[in-house]
Amino acid sequence: MSSHDVMPDMGLYQPVTVEDAAGIARQYSERGWLVGGGQDTYGWLKDRAKRPEVLIDLKGIESMRGIRETADGIEIGALVTLTELTRDPLITERYSLLAEAAGRVASPQIRNVGTIAGNVSQDVRCWYYRRGLNCYRAGGNLCYADTPEGMNREHALFNASRCVAVTPSDTGPALVALEAQMVISNGSSERVVAAEDFFVGPNVDITHTTVLRPGEILTAVRIPAKWANAEFYFEKVADRNVWDFALVSISAAMRVNNGVIEESRMVAGAVEATPRRLDRIEQAIRGKARNQETADEVAALAIQGARPLNYNHFKMPLLENLVNRAVRGHA
Amino acid sequence: MTYMHIGKDFTPPDVEGKVTGAARYAEDFRRDGMVFARLLTSPIPSGRVVSIDASEALAMPGVVGIFTADDLPPSAPPANPALAKEFITYVGQPILAVAAESEEIAEAAIERIAIEFERRPFVVDPLDTLIEGGPDPYPMGNTLIREGAAAAAGTTASGTAVGSIKWTLDQITAFRAGRFPTGAPWGEEWAYGDVDANFAQCSTIIEEPFVTIGQPHHSLESRTGMAYWENGKCYFHGSLQSHTVGHAQLARMVDVDPANLVFINENTGGGFGSKIFPYPMMAVTGRFAKALNRPLQLRITRADEFYIGSARSGMQGWIKVGLRDNGRVGAVDIAIIGDAGSGGGASGSSAAEHVSIMYQPEAMRYRGISLYTNTTPRGAQRGPGQNEMAAVLSPIMDKAGRQAGLDLVELRRINAPGADAKVGPRQGDISSSYYPQAIEQGAALFGWEQKRALPRQISATKVRGIGVGEGYHSAGASGYDGLLRIAPDGKIHLHTGVGNLGTYSYAAVLRAAAETLQCSWENCVIAHGHSDLHLPHSTYQGGSNTIFTETRSSHVAALDAIRKMKQIAAADFGGSVDDYSIGGERVFLTSDSSKGYTYAEVAQKAIELGGEYSGQVFAEDLNDTTKRSVQAMAGTGLIGAAKDTLPKSGTTPGMAVAFVEIELDTETGKFDILDYTGIAECGTVIHPKGLRQAMNGGGVWGFGMAAFERHVYDPQNGLPANVGLYQSKPPTYLDVPLQMKSGAADMPDPQSPVGSRGIGEPAQGCAVAALMSAISDALDGHLFNRTPVTPDMILNQIAQNGYNTGDLKTNTF
Amino acid sequence: MEIIRYRYDVWGEEVILGVSWDLLWVVAVTALILLAAHAIFMAALAKKKAKPSSEGKRVKRHDAIDRAFHWIMAGSVLTLIATGIAPIVGLRISWLNIHWIAGLVLTFVVIFHIIRAMFWQDFKAMLLGPADFKEPFDETIKPGKYSFEQKGMHWAMTVLVLGVIATGILLFLNINTPWWDRPSVADEGALGIYFLLHGTATLALVAFTAIHIYFAVRPEKIFYTRSMVTGWISEAEMKENHDTNKWKPE
């Protein structure tokens, strides 16, 4: 378990089309590794905790860049950086929820190279797993975090199935709230998956965090016009205000008419392996005034079913409080 | 006093290189034929190496050799071995090094080496080994014992050994519950005054347990060394805080005569106490290079830096404080279990010393034990002992003050150490103190009285907290050498063997020489960072020590030069040396300034005269390192070389007081620091920018200690949870206030020729203490009794859900 | 091809992870080939013999409670196999809860069956004696209630099911359930052995289940399957396949 910090000897492909990239990815399957901004990649590789044979660098694929307006909203190329998301007028004016979420990812340096696709596809940050231990998520047969003395402060409150890691993505919950569609290509055909279904929990697939299969590439993210210019609320609470993962985050989109919530989407981050849709809250606030009273009335619903571990009980009041803020509309 | 240089800003010569990237660190040096070494480290927390099979690695193209504990002189516990074999005591401990033509090959080779280990029991919480029947971190025990007699007889290398100390279950249970463990044995203790009698006179008495968790140094420049041997000389590019003070030790480590060791270390990327002296892996660098007869670079990774880059000790303790009716601290009783990691020492006594000086108790007792655990080795880290004590002490004293009806600043003011303050178990004197003035200055700058009057509740979810904290460290020594050379071209070469940690103090202290010589700074040339530049025996750069100690050395070197210049002038122009003055870079007859020499001329004269003037002869009391340097420069100018024998008595204190205002969000457990004011009591300020840097940098790190950084170990397997920088969480630019206010009492210490004392450590201690005080204040005086205090703890406290860490557990979330 | 999969434990020491799932394909393909070969062989060599009529007088072969047991067990075993194999073959379903619930069901019905068989059923009817081993080689010997093959299958399944149950319970103790939280794993090597045994038993169970199903749907045996649904076989079927001296139905 000695530590390393230089890149291992491995192959590098730099395709310029999605078709070529998918073909290479298909050829190498689990032995290949797609890399965009590389912010989740290089740590794995330099630590020798993951050992793919080849890197498939997607940065040369121009078609995966840029933010475009479509008939029903916008399409964000997979390689759009998080910094670009925070600055693009289409995003900041219509979908400020996403801009805010992207602006809270890591640090400016990381946001400058980290991509939207990478942020939603990144692996979990459980320290045991990242250490390279052969836990369930790494294909092993046990979890080191979920034990009577495990150090699991950052881990899951909900829906843990053997693995108790949480989604580290800040933009993932925002995209689920915005009912984004994830465009996935295998080189010859495309499938479009709702953001909510894009993420998978350990109960379904313990070694992956998304529905992406070997040979598939997330090429774009589409956001429908439905939630454009809605009322949004985003907040991420982390130990540090820069370069840190969320302890809990909240992303909310609401249609409010005359102070009454007509429809909403509320999603929490860092409380389970996937962005957690808070549908009980959404139902409970429908038709109610967006105010403190409503917030106080419904917030506790957010933590029903929580199963805290040794050190993460605090996430329950934190989630409840963030839901309260999102409903009332201010910190 | 009006100074030419002291108290004025200047641009240290290494600033430009650090801004542009031109500054070179050990890793940047290359040599023809150089090979790269990497460490293979232990995956287990405790055990021994049974066998090593490196055949596959050695057969790899490009691999040139391996180096194991068998290639080094034997070492016995608790000495921290460069490479472990019989006593593996923490995960990440180096076991062997592999050298190869490239870093990539070396790292690949490490993976091809098979090691059979034998595992032993392990422990990551000191209280778990202290309990009867608990696992021991070493097969022979859990604590350091000193064997002076045995050392004298040559039976152990260090005069230390590992022994065992245990408490009963009842004693451990009592301690965990925050009570004094009656009848428990201790490793060390001291006391002064009649503690019990003084408690009897106190009207307010509180007892509190406390825990401070250690934290890694995480020096940004991970430890690197590059060594090569040529013509019997060892050239060593390294990364140390100090320079010449470590020279002889490094020479021993690499087995070379000090005269044949050339140590090169112009810049160092952080050390924080962990690089004060040569560290074990430097032995591997030098000896491996010699064994291979090739230049060799050994650079460790960021993760390795966590493991072997040292760390602050943790404390688990109990304190009883008594206040008299007048607010004076009547008595303090304190017990500390120190977490010494797998090696090094805990800092309990230093922690207690902080209490003794900052509150001047009439009577005090300290009892402590330093216990080993199977965690990363510990060493000095900015204010070791004092600063973690400051952190937990501040809210505890606040509680006592509140009970006594005292304002928090008033409590400090009443007990503030003045010029007549005493310190430590021997109740020794201090050189001077203007600390009461510093408190007044800080309270005014911060607006303590106004902020006291502000409402605590800012909004429905935001509460205000204000706090005050104090930092202390002894800040100066004496007895080191100063060295300078005035060249025939008139340039004044100021030589220093102080390291360049990044504080710029190595340059600032030399301005004392320029001040004494009354010369322009632009005409001065600094020689540092390279043995071949002929450096004097200077102090270690650590312990807030450089400013006081090295301004004295610089001053005595300048005085020596002035004496020699005057002697030369008197010989040529008549009269006695007392008839001569200096000024304008000339030495001249006071009564007739036309009679004299420029510094350039007198330097030429010195060369012509030889003897002591140009270094052929030198004082016997100089250190060997300085003597070698003087000899090497002999005949090249006028040499000023002297040992600091200026009067020095008592402890030289560095002290600081800080004030913090926070806005705490009761829904998230987060807080913003709205205002930070830190005031140094460091004697005369010699470099204002340097002081601001020290106060701001110390403040930021203090915030980290209060609210972010700590060791976390899984007790089930001994693995650390936060090896990387992002996991260790030093504060970032959005976690600290945009503006941090700082100042200084700026009054001269009589034992420094320029009035200055050090301030490095207190700058952190006051900040962590003030922030802890403010957090407690925001939460109605709640004591977490531990550092750091993180958002989860605040949320749990507000939710009253009972989930905060209890039982004095340490190295945990 | 690997037989056993290994991994590194928390301290970097190699320990068993479990059986190699490559073997699943080996088992599947081997079972398929053998059964296909058997089918072809039987089709080619089988004597053209009239099947006994299922009409006429009916003989009770299985009580309703035993049939219920059989099908609950069958259902739970097939559920266990399906949910256990799903993640191996890449099917993304939330399988674990279904898996352990099916395991609990299987455990309870097996305990029920053991108790019932020992105290309320003709336990001896299922015992394999030396005489039973002559049966496959002598066409004149007819079995009592259960044929040699049926007894063999029963006992093989007994061993395998008990094996998966025993190892399954050990693994069950290592996950979170409504009744307990998962403990620390002090011996990762031992855990690996549990997985290895569970996996090995599973592979054998897959093979025997395939064989069982194959024979259950073979034309000359399907009346047994019918009897497991309806409870009866015809007297003609009984006389054709059983020695009525050894099996005297109620």
Helix/strand layout:
The complex is a heterotrimer of chains A (331), B (813) and C (250).
Chain A: E1 11-13, H1 18-28, E2 32-35, H2 41-46, E3 54-57, E4 67-70, E5 73-77, H3 82-87, H4 89-94, H5 96-103, H6 108-113, H7 116-121, H8 127-130, H9 171-177, E6 181-185, E7 190-194, H10 195-198, E8 217-223, E9 231-237, E10 248-257, E11 260-269, E12 276-277, H11 279-285, H12 292-298, H13 315-328
Parallel strand pairs in A: 1-3, 2-3
Antiparallel strand pairs in A: 4-5, 5-8, 6-7, 6-8, 9-10, 10-11, 11-12
Helix pairs in contact in A: 12-13
Chain B: H1 15-20, E1 35-41, E2 47-53, H2 55-58, E3 63-68, E4 94-100, H3 103-110, E5 114-119, H4 126-130, E6 143-146, H5 148-152, E7 160-163, H6 169-176, E8 188-192, H7 195-200, E9 204-212, E10 224-230, E11 233-237, H8 247-254, E12 261-264, H9 281-292, E13 296-299, H10 302-308, E14 314-323, E15 329-339, H11 348-359, E16 363-371, H12 386-403, H13 408-415, E17 422-423, E18 428-429, H14 435-446, H15 448-453, E19 462-474, E20 481-486, E21 492-495, H16 505-508, H17 511-517, E22 524-527, H18 546-573, E23 580-583, E24 586-589, E25 592-598, H19 599-609, H20 624-633, E26 638-643, E27 653-665, E28 671-681, H21 688-707, H22 725-728, E29 741-744, H23 760-778, E30 786-787, H24 791-799
Parallel strand pairs in B: 1-13, 9-30, 11-12, 15-16, 21-22, 28-29
Antiparallel strand pairs in B: 1-4, 2-5, 3-4, 6-7, 8-16, 9-14, 10-11, 10-13, 14-15, 17-18, 19-27, 20-21, 20-26, 23-24, 24-25, 27-28
Helix pairs in contact in B: 11-12, 12-23, 17-18, 18-19, 21-23
Chain C: E1 4-8, E2 14-19, H1 22-45, E3 58-60, H2 64-89, H3 96-119, H4 148-172, H5 188-217, H6 222-230, E4 232-234, H7 235-241
Antiparallel strand pairs in C: 1-2, 3-4
Helix pairs in contact in C: 1-5, 2-3, 3-4, 4-5
Question: What's the story with the biggest beta sheet of chain C?
Answer: 2 strands, antiparallel
According to DSSP, the number of beta strands of chain A is 12
Secondary-structure arrangement, i.e. CATH architecture of chain C: Up-down Bundle
Query: Main interface pair?
Result: A-B, 42 and 55 residues
Tell me the CATH superfamily of chain C: Transmembrane di-heme cytochromes, Chain C
Mean pLDDT figure of chain A = 97
> If you consult CATH, what is the topology of chain C?
Fumarate Reductase Cytochrome B subunit
What proportion of the residues of chain C is helical, as a percent range?
55-70%
Quick one: CATH class of chain A? Alpha Beta
Q: What Rg of chain C, in angstroms, do the CA atoms define?
A: 21 Å
Please indicate the count of domains of chain C. 1
Q: Which assembly state applies to the chains in this document? A: heterotrimer
Query: Architecture of chain A, according to CATH?
Result: 2-Layer Sandwich
Order of helices and strands of chain A: EHEHEEEHHHHHHHEEHEEEEEHHH
> How far from one another are the termini of chain C?
53 Å
- The fraction of residues assigned to DSSP E strands of chain C is 5-15%
Number of domains of chain A: 1
